[in-house]
What we know:
Keywords: Signal. Residues 1-20 form the signal peptide. This is DUF4333 domain-containing protein. There is one protein chain. By secondary structure, this protein is an alpha+beta fold. It is 24% helix and 32% strand. It contains 2 helices and 7 strands, in the order αββαβββββ. The protein has helices at residues 3-22, 58-69, and strands at 24-29, 55-56, 79-81, 85-86, 92-99, 102-114, 117-124.
Amino acid sequence: MNSRRVRQVLVAGLAGAALAVTGCSASVQVGGSPDSSKPAFSTKVSFTEKSSKLSLPKETVEEYSAKQLAKDPNNLPEIRCDGGLEGTIGYTQACQVQILGEWYPYTATVVSVVDDRINWRIVADDPASIPQ
């Protein structure tokens, strides 16, 4: 493994380990234009077709969760989630984060829905299992 790849793996691992205990949250705006007074992560997403509830596709949850977990924006951890998030407080989605080549279970949980924003937190299911 070349030194650049080793450094990327170590940075991603350390970022994941450091944030596994503290957790992170993200916020995504649904529709409208981003407001500079709101969190940095805002994007347009659509309402579900079957109802008027807000929702986020899994790709958006993965992208913004990776940005929240990363200490270095140039080295985002790999994240995969089973699906997206519905704009319902307490709604959860199972995800996995790759740390040092291994996948660890994380859960994304909607913590608030304000107007057209879905705010969620992603944390390790078992922080003690995350390598230091």
